[in-house]
Amino acid sequence: MTSFPTAAKLTVIAVAIVGATGVTARHAAAAASVAVVPQSAGDPVAGRTLYQACTGCHSLDENDVGPRHRGVVGRKAGTVPGYAYSAALRTSGMVWTPANLDRWLTNPQKVVPGAKMYFSVANPKQRADIIAYLAQQR
Ligand code: HEC
């Protein structure tokens, strides 16, 4: 029985540590989610609808006015076989990360001067949604 108060005290200390750690972890998670919002907030379902704006020139599986899109997220720019890219995009050396796609859709010619896509999406949320949709088209 003499050990009971000690065990109780240890339990109190452990709960206090877990509580403190929990707060720290929540704060860290909140900070992390703020940092990744531009890339992670996209809604792929909304993006699917918004992608209709791209289909005047692109499709997922056929080269058209623009190159086909399936698998574009993570791909090196200007590398779809059978599509006649501008020299600027073909030699850009860029990889289509979500961040680069966001910059591209904001203003293609600013990202790759000499690129021949004349279309942009001004709304950041819509860009994120479209990128989330494209990321699912593996
Ligand atoms: C008016 C026609 C047009 C529209 C609309 C258009 N694009 Fe493009 N897109 C192009 C052309 C042309 C290229 C090739 C650019 C080059 O070779 O410089 C291209 C290239 C791209 C590339 C580079 C792909 C690669 O293989 O490197 C991406 C990504 C892209 N477009 C995304 C989009 C998205 C997403 C939309 C809709 C929000 C869109 N485009 C709307 C014409 C268009």
Automatic annotation (TrEMBL):
Keyword vocabulary terms for this entry: Electron transport, Heme, Iron, Metal-binding, Signal, Transport
Pfam families, sorted: Cytochrom_C (PF00034)
Family matches, as PROSITE patterns: CYTC
InterPro entries given in the database record: Cyt_c-like_dom, Cyt_c-like_dom_sf, Cyt_c_1A/1B
Keyword check for Electron transport: yes
Domain (Cytochrome c): residue spans on this chain: 42-138
Keyword Lipoprotein: no
Signal peptide residue numbers: 1-25
Name under which the protein is recorded: C-type cytochrome
